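Pinned message: reference record for Transmembrane protein 231
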Amino acid sequence: MVMLEVFKETISVKYKAFLLSKATFITLVCDIITISLPFVLSYYSGGLWQKHNSLHLQPNVRFNGDFLLLAMSAQNQKPIVCSSFPYYKKYLGTLDACSTVKIREIDANLDNQVDALQFQTTIDLPEKMPIDAINIVLLLNYTLQEPCYFQMESAVIYQETNLRNVFQLSLYADLGLQQTESIKCSKNRLADMNLPIGNAHHSEDYMFDNFVGNYASKKIKTTLTNPITTYGSVKATSFGLNLNLKYPKHKIYYTPNLWQVCKFAWIQYIAIYIITAWLVSKIKSYIFMNNLVLFYKDRK
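Predicted structure (tokens):
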């Protein structure tokens, strides 16, 4: 006679035990292990709670219009000073011999971010005064949008000596970022400005040595990397300076905030939790299916 399945019912079996019993104790221990063991394993394996992180980003760098150029000669104690700072224009304007200054910011890929900077100047040379050394400072505004908003006033400092019989200098370099501490993500996304180097309050701060020393003490600053220099020795009555600076991606070290840490921590925790919960469930099933502890079955 043919038998047909016309209805089915699921039998639910509940295992019950008293509060103070071995079964309750084993269940409590298994639950604690299931929750705490993934956290312990992920924490001591490293990387769960990220104190520091790094990311390659394209910074938004803009030239703020301020520069300082010092050209020195061993035959004259007074240097040639070209600058946009009001202090130098007021007190050292008579030493300015830069006939032309050209500044150009280039957006090569048209993404509304500056990719390179060209700085060109021509220095009129007094008679019998060849330039032996040159120092130049360009002030920049450095901004990051991700992973956290950061803004600072930075600089490009370049020094070249032994320029005797050189009348044309061209420098090709990349803008680098030097960090002795990580960038802290601010939850209110306010600008994290370093002390401005272009708004000095004392005349001593405008001295080039002090100027460079104060900037070198900064924990986060920009520097020149991969410099390539070419020289021209054709004698002329002027000295030509050409700086070509590119803005590549920078490796940014930063301190993640709480939500950024949790975003990566929970993935590691869940991955270990799934395996741990499966192993613990198998152990519990073995204990209760083989009646290793006292309990009561309630069938429904």
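Pinned by admin. Summary line: Residues 258-289 form the longest helix (32 residues).
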